[in-house]
Specification:
The structure holds three protein chains of three kinds. By secondary structure, chain A is mostly helical. Chain A is built from 16 helices and four strands. Chain B contains 21 helices and 22 strands. Classes of the chains: A mainly alpha, B alpha/beta, C mainly alpha.
């Protein structure tokens, strides 16, 4: 029974799960507010969940871990910045359409009232086609380099990020909150989304508790704010992926990842399935970064997306995925464990050792996890 | 214990081997003298490779429980536990596949890991591996080894630029260069050579034997064996059936020993089709009309008609093949492995690059597209069960219904082309049906295919094909790697399926007896071409002759 | 014929493109020839050794050794110790090497074992391994040094009493190797000036009548690099080198010929790691400061990019590639920001451009390699078709 559990969960997950548990248990004794930490974990789970979800299609189609996630993130950044740049114009256009086609609810007032959700939606809607095109090209490339996908994905990610660094400087953005004040052009390194769609999902239907409880003579502030909207959004995305993996195409994709020769002999176009999976991963990455930004509050350009693939890759592996099999459950478990460790280690270690070791622990845990997955014997 | 000077070079005493209760070799005893050339013949699976594995101490033998009997080298008992021990004891092996490094020159390959080194101070401090190579000395040694073979190959030529035949010589030269090599095993060395090259090789081998090197020559080309060897050993089903001087056997007798039936005394009229190279369409119909079995009705349009098919399948190249299969017939394709019999069905199904003309019920089939073949109601069971036939990491219902789902749109619900989800209930139901009817031993439709035994996996593969409700079923090696009980069941299932549904079945198998027991007609493939199509009722030795590379015309000469 | 032409272009396309870029960017940058030559010489001395350390794993078919950062970290640990002990000059460098060597060997053996478990994806594994060991390195340097590992020099430690500062001055060994044999090239005019400033005696002064400007040459570093090149040439001729070439081409054949494949692969990585350790020490003695937490990171990426720009591929690299690469890469590095500034009025663009090029070139090299390998596999499969197969 226990043996079976260990076998199913795998040693690394159990060790890290126990480590996280130990952190939660020690937290109250060293004066860390467990509730706040837990709340933070939940928020960060929601922020990162969709980006981790982006790993599933490519892993399932046998393209390996998507180290090229930055490509999707770039599409998301383009969507986010364009939605701000064009915010007023888009709203005006929509209002105009409302008048022209006599859509009674599509009025200027309505649009002003829903400016923020509309901005968020437009960010995603702009990002998706960009991600689809980039993903298509990226998929075509990966089909030509079968067997070396992961390394090439890494460097495709890196070079696209550094290419975009040049582009961010040169693209003709004009919006005053986004460009450098003194030059009047070139996007800033961080752009606030306040006034556009800051916390648009976090605050939607959010549950707030405020209370004081007494534990062992100490009075603890309980200040919880559960980002329900963001969790719902993640759940919806996860559900869409879940449904997709059950469609005819999704089934074919899984078969391609499981055994490409079998799929080919069954009349499946292997390359096409792989391309679709890469496109999906890229699109999910684009949506993921926008969700991340609305919670984080800033759009991070330039070298910002550089190392964003690694935490996502590590999360899904931590959740029990292998290089060629991944499920929604892996995403949920992995993101929770990974973000839990990320939130808990700094607070707990800070209180115990008066020093922040979280960065080092993040490096060791995430890369150790990836190493473990890469060196695991895969059944031939 | 001192070496007995009169003892044979190598002696085998009652060698036997079992794999998981499956006997593959029993009671093999023979000996080889220095300078002797021994021919070793036998069908695929007769036990030749197991015998070699034992002699060379391959780890697979020890890990499966060792072997029975004793080996003596120079009269001293030996027991090799690694190939390196065998090599240093003077045994040499030339493999069927080339184990050469393509970017290296002939010299570098011949002396691979036996390089001549310049002595240096460093080598005393560290190890020999930091000494530099003495390229001149290496070149001389390589040249010497090549010259022993009587061929002219520049020692500086890069292997990747060599014609195939040269590579074989380089392999042999590598074994000869090993100073202590006294016994050389050659596994099908002439298979890849042209006739001329083979000729040179045989001369070279004779030369070697004169220098005292004993040779064990494994080949399916019986005439070569007869020409070269002084003694011939025939292995069949793991036993040594003959050990006689080569002179005393005709190739026909050899062939019948190999396939397992004593040469029958009665002179049967040998009637076979030999497909002429350019076959006229009417002509072939006529020939077929006369030879097709009487119990089958004559049909105008064959179910499958193949003309000048070539298939580029690695290791199973098909050069030029034409045949017809009647509706409702069970057609067998036999031949030795590596000669292209597997390439035929794989090529027709579009799994490997192919060309030529294939007609299905009179209509042309698009080649090179598995989907095209599948949509024409053909089903395929691959010989590579784990590689192509199954999704080992997925449940049984996926394995069985996947192809039907993707090509026929079954086991789905939703709107075609727009949104279709898999219908897991229907999948499980269909799977259960097959689990029952084929008695697949498993825990249920959700068990992973990789967890099943070989025989049950094969049944899953069959179920996958049956689900497609095919008009034509192509099956490769239906009984490979499964136990005897399952073998019979699989074959019976096929016969029954054919009888009940009238499905045309094409079986490709290395096991001749199996083909003869199931099929109506059997085609024998040799060197990428069909050398003859015989009714299954013909005596086994006739098939044997065909398989052993003796074209039927030659065979006829011997019977006269 | 067409194919041959294509191959020649494909094999040398990368250096050719860079020569072209430089040809445009050099005039745009407006740098003088003597400035460029001086900068280049300094950088060749600084970087070549690191790049050379990549050659041996490529020979053994293990691809670009992204794990060379392990060696770089070992070298940095050596440097931290000599800084703490206050050992300066050449003895300091030698000691740093002596301390770094066993660490590099241990890391190399570890790396080799890991890579043997991940055959076929050595590069991505060694790349992630670099990050992993980076975590361990940071833990050591940031938390253990000054706490468990005795480091006492307050100039090295953070104000909290343990952990090493972000930037450590290597003034004790700055340029000691470069200036060991001080050499200057100049014209007679410059020579007079130079002697006036520096005084006579301690310099090799080479006077060239038509030379414009004054150039210092890190002669001792060049001698070390030359010795290293000789080592590599010699190594290729040894039995070990031959074995590595064999393994690089076919592990299975090498194995059946009795070559200890796994062991040899580990040796290749160990040699590379140790050499990268020395390379990093040479690199940092030239720079004069150690960025404790990211010097090693850049070392790996820039060295690999430089090697590829020199025309090397994942499976084939020569000493020529190293030097062509180091020259072209640094030429671009020097001129790109100025050229960017003069062209678009933004130095930042040039900086981003060179980062983009570094990553882009690695991406392209990896793609070309995978592509070519898949094509060759296809060709090899086709050749099995044999003599008269595939008529029609």
């Amino acid at each position: 029974m226990i043996k079976n559990f260990i076998k199913n969960a795998g040693w690394p997950r159990i060790i890290i799960g126990l480590f996280l548990l130990a952190l939660f248990i020690t937290a109250p004794f060293v004066g860390v507010n467990v509730f706040t930490s837990f709340n933070n974990t939940i928020v960060r789970f929601g922020m990162n969940g969709v980006m981790v979800l982006a790993m599933i299609p490519m892993v399932q189609a046998g393209c390996g871990l998507n180290f090229g996630l930055p490509l999707g993130i770039i599409a998301g950044l383009l969507g986010a910045t364009l939605s701000i740049e064009l915010n007023t114009e888009i709203l005006a256009k929509l209002a105009e359409l409302g008048i022209r086609y006599k859509i009674s609810w599509l009025t200027r007032e309505f649009l002003t009232a829903y400016r923020e959700p509309a901005g968020f939606a437009s960010a995603i809607l702009i990002a998706i086609p960009i991600a689809a095109v980039l993903g298509w090209l990226y998929g075509k490339l990966l089909n030509r380099v079968k067997g070396d996908e992961m390394m090439i994905a890494t460097y495709v990610g890196f070079s696209s990020v550094s290419f975009m660094c040049i582009a961010w400087l040169l693209l003709p953005y004009k919006h005053p909150t986004m460009v450098w004040g003194y030059a009047g052009r070139g996007l800033r390194t961080t752009i606030s989304v306040e006034g556009y769609w800051l916390h648009i999902l976090n605050d939607w239907l959010s549950l707030n508790f405020q209370d004081k409880i007494e534990i062992g003579g100490k009075i603890l502030d309980v200040n919880l704010s559960i980002p329900t909207g963001m969790l719902i959004f993640f759940a919806v995305m996860a559900f869409i992926v879940w449904i997709f993996m059950r469609t005819k195409t999704g089934t074919a994709m899984t078969a391609v990842g499981s055994n490409p020769e079998f799929a080919r002999a069954s009349g499946v176009n292997v390359d096409k399935m792989r391309t679709i999976s890469v496109m999906m991963s890229t699109i999910l990455g684009a949506i993921g970064i926008i969700v991340y930004e609305q919670s984080f509050g800033f759009i991070q350009l330039y070298m910002g997306p550089f190392y964003m693939a690694l935490p996502a890759v590590a999360s899904i592996l931590l959740g029990g995925a292998s290089v060629n099999k991944a499920t929604i459950l892996n995403v949920v478990v992995g993101t929770f464990l990974f973000q839990g460790i990320l939130t808990m280690t700094p607070t707990v270690f800070n209180s115990v050792f008066q020093t922040d070791m979280s960065e080092v622990i993040r490096l060791i845990v995430s890369n150790g996890m990836i190493l473990y997955a890469l060196t695991r014997k895969v059944r031939a | 214990m001192s070496a007995n000077n009169n003892a044979p070079l190598l002696q085998l005493e009652h060698i036997g081997k079992e794999y998981y209760g499956n006997r593959v070799l029993s009671d093999i005893s023979f000996s080889i003298e220095a300078g002797e050339i021994l021919g070793l013949v036998g069908e695929n699976g007769a036990g030749k490779s197991t015998l070699l594995n034992i002699l060379f101490g391959m780890p697979v033998i020890a890990s499966t429980g060792g072997y029975e009997g004793n080996l003596y080298l120079d009269g001293k008992p030996v027991h090799f536990t690694s190939p390196n021990q065998a090599l240093s004891a003077g045994l040499g092996m030339v493999h069927q596949e080339f184990s050469l490094i393509p970017g290296f020159t002939a010299t570098e390959n011949i002396l691979l890991n036996r390089e001549v080194l310049n002595g240096s101070l460093m080598s005393y401090v560290f190890s020999d591996r930091v000494s530099t190579l003495d390229r001149d000395a290496m070149r001389h040694r390589a040249e010497a080894a090549i010259n022993t073979l009587g061929v002219h190959i520049s020692p500086d030529m890069t292997v990747s630029e060599m014609p195939v035949g040269y590579k074989q010589f380089i392999e042999i030269a590598r074994e000869i260069d090993r100073k202590n090599t006294r016994l050389l095993f050659l596994d099908e060395p002439t298979a890849v050579l042209t006739e001329q090259e083979a000729e040179i090789l045989l001369i070279a081998l004779k030369k070697l034997s004169k220098q005292g090197i004993a040779i064990v020559f494994i080949s399916h080309r019986l005439s070569e064996v007869k020409e070269l060897c002084s003694r011939i050993l025939v292995l069949r089903d793991g036993t040594l059936v003959t050990d006689v001087p080569a002179k005393t056997l005709t190739t026909r007798e050899m062939a019948s020993l190999v396939v397992g039936r004593e040469s029958s005394k009665k002179e049967e009229a040998v009637e076979v089709e030999i497909p002429e190279q350019p076959v006229e369409e009417e002509n072939i119909n006529e020939t077929l009309g006369t030879t097709t079995l009487s119990k089958k009705k004559k049909k105008k349009k064959p179910a499958l008609k193949v003309e000048h098919l070539w298939v580029d399948m690695p290791g199973e190249t098909v050069r030029d093949v034409s045949f017809e299969v009647q509706k409702g017939e069970i057609f067998g394709i036999g031949g030795l492995s590596g000669h292209g019999k597997l390439g035929i069905p794989n090529g027709i199904m579009g799994l490997y690059p192919a060309g030529g003309k294939v007609k299905l019920f009179g209509k042309k089939l698009t080649l090179n597209k598995p989907r095209a073949a599948l949509s024409r109601k053909m089903a395929f069971v691959s010989e590579d069960r784990r590689g192509v036939g199954l999704l080992l990491d997925e449940p049984l219902d996926w394995n069985i219904t996947f192809t039907a789902m993707q090509t026929q749109g079954r086991f789905l619900f939703g709107i075609p082309y727009i949104f279709q989800m898999r219908n897991e209930l229907a999948m499980a139901k269909e799977t259960k049906k097959f689990i029952e009817s084929l008695s697949i031993k498993c825990t249920g439709p959700s068990q992973k295919a990789g967890e099943l035994s070989g025989g049950n996996q094969q049944k899953v593969c069959l179920a996958k094909a049956f689900v497609l409700r095919p008009d034509i079923l192509l099956i490769c090696e239906p009984t490979r790697g499964i136990d005897i009980g399952a073998k019979a069941l699989v074959l019976d299932t096929l016969k029954e399926y054919n009888r009940e549904n009238g499905t045309t079945i094409i079986i490709t198998s290395s096991e001749l007896e199996e083909l003869r027991s199931v099929c109506d007609r059997v085609a024998i493939v040799d060197d990428g071409e069909i050398v003859g199509i015989l009714p299954a009722s013909r005596p086994a030795e006739e098939f044997g002759m065909l398989m052993m590379g003796e074209k039927m015309r030659v065979a006829l000469e011997y019977t006269e | 014929m067409v194919r041959k032409f294509f191959d020649i272009i494909a094999n040398n396309a990368v250096p050719a493109v860079f020569i072209l870029i430089s040809a445009f960017a050099i005039p745009l940058s407006g740098f003088s020839a003597s400035y460029l030559v001086q900068e280049l010489l300094t950088r060749i001395g600084r970087n070549s050794f690191l790049i050379l350390s990549l050659l041996i794993p490529i020979m053994a078919g293990m691809g670009l050794n992204f794990g060379m950062v392990l060696g770089a970290m070992a070298g940095q640990i050596g440097l931290l110790f000599i800084c703490d002990w206050g050992i300066v000059g050449i003895p300091g460098m030698v000691l740093a090497c002596l301390i770094g060597t066993p660490i590099a060997i241990i890391l190399g053996i570890f790396c080799g074992h890991i890579l043997n478990r991940a055959k076929g994806r050595e590069m991505v594994t060694s790349y992630i391994l670099g990050f992993f060991i980076n975590g361990v390195y940071q833990m050591t340097v940031l938390y253990l040094m000054g706490w468990i590992i005795p480091i006492t020099n307050p100039n090295l430690l953070l104000s909290r009493g343990y952990g090493v500062r972000n930037a450590v001055s290597l003034s004790g060994i700055r340029a000691v190797l470069d200036n060991l044999i001080p050499t200057v090239i100049t014209n007679p005019e410059g020579a007079k000036q130079f002697l006036n400033v520096n005084g006579a005696g301690s310099f090799f002064l080479i006077q060239l009548p038509f030379f414009d400007g004054t150039i210092r040459i890190p002669l001792a570093t060049f001698i070390i690099i030359a010795l290293f090149c000789v080592f590599i040439v010699w190594f290729r001729k040894t039995k070990l080198g031959q074995d590595m070439r064999a393994i690089g081409q076919s592990q299975s054949v090498a194995d059946s010929a009795g070559i200890p494949v796994n062991r040899t692969r580990i040796i290749a990585i160990v040699i590379s790691t140790v050499l990268a350790c020395y390379g990093q020490i040479i690199y940092l003695q030239n720079m004069g400061t150690l960025n404790t937490y990211n010097s090693h990171d850049q070392a790996g990426m820039f060295s690999i990019a430089a090697l590829l720009i020199g025309g090397a591929s994942v499976s084939k690299a020569s000493i020529t590639n190293v030097f062509v690469g180091v020259i072209l890469f640094h030429l671009m590095f020097i001129v790109a920001p100025m050229a960017g500034k003069n062209l678009i009025g933004e130095a930042q663009i040039g900086e981003y451009f060179r980062v983009f090029v570094s990553y882009g070139i690695i991406a392209i090299a990896l793609v070309l390699h995978a592509w070519k390998r898949n094509r060759e596999r296809e060709a090899a499969r086709r050749s099995l078709r044999g003599g008269n197969g595939g008529k029609a």
